[in-house]
Amino acid sequence: MPARQALKAFATWLGDPRASRTAARQVAREILQRLDNSHATNTARRTLQRVVESAAYTGCVDLDELRTVVREVFEGAGRDPDRFLGYADARVTAAAVVDITQANLVAIDLVRCGGLTDAFLHQARQQLLAGEEAYVAQYAQLAGAAPDLYEPPTPQEALSGCCSCLLTTIGFMLMSEDRSS
After folding, report:
1. Is 69 in contact with 51 (CB distance < 8 Å)?
2. Alpha carbons 169 and 60: distance in angstroms, whole number
3. How many CA atoms lie within 13 A of 160 on its CB side?
4. What stretches in the chain show pLDDT beneath 70?
5. Which H or E run includes 102?
6. 168, exposed or middle or buried, with CB in 10 Å at 0-12, 13-18, 19+?
7. Please, what is the Cα angle at 82 between 173 and 32, to 5 degrees?
8. Among the four residues 77, 104, 124, 141, which has the most C-beta atoms within 10 Å?
């Protein structure tokens, strides 16, 4: 498929990234469930749910507010500052959750403004393929540490998640370029 056609398909897939109010509520509940810590306060939980629901519904998020509330819930109001999910070499931390959100927002902006070039898309695709290959090789070890966190590497999963993974990869590549500039 020509890169121009792939870019158009990718932009079409992205469509309007905002969710319906019901879907936004569901996303917020799922994220809270994954990040929750028994030491988190009910106020922090409600705030996280509100911030995530609003972000999913509007497509906009205050990253500083998200960073603060994710940390309050994930780290249990500072009582568990070293907490992470997953395998030690593939840690999901409070900071990682915010970084992934930021990467997706950066990539969405690039795709929406038409700034994604053929060359950058090709580079992102190559990086994603290398990452997928490494994930397949490490899956058993990762899933052993956190079975609910890591999806099995099946062809169906690769197909259904390819665009969202590519979006995140593009965002991280852009953020990396910004840091090195």
Report:
1. yes
2. 20
3. 7
4. 1, 16-19, 87-89, 179-181
5. helix 94-112
6. buried
7. 70
8. 124
Tokens 């999806």, residue located: 151
Q: How far apart are CA 122 and CA 80, in angstroms?
A: 41
Cα 50 to its chain centre, rounded Å, is: 18
CA distance 71 to 93: 9
- CA 81, 50, 169, 85 torsion: positive or negative? positive
Tokens 């959100």 — which residue? 101
Tokens for 124, please give them. Answer: 């992102």
Task: Give the pLDDT confidence of 117-142 residue by residue, as tens digits.
Answer: 989 999 999 999 998 888 888 888 87
Tokens of 34: 């994954």
Total-model pTM: 0.78
CA dihedral 91, 139, 38, 78 (to 10 degrees): 0
Q: Which residue has the tokens 């705030």?
A: 47
Cα 146 from Cα 148, distance rounded (Å): 6
State the alpha helices, DSSP H only, in 146-181. 155-180
Residue range 77-95, pLDDT digits in tens: 778 788 887 766 677 888 8
User: What tokens were used for 65?
Assistant: 């507010």
Per the structure block, which two tokens stand in for 113?
């403004």
In the DSSP assignment, the letter for residue 76 is T
Query: Can you tell me the distance from the alpha carbon of 52 to that of 49, in angstroms, rounded to the nearest whole number?
Result: 5
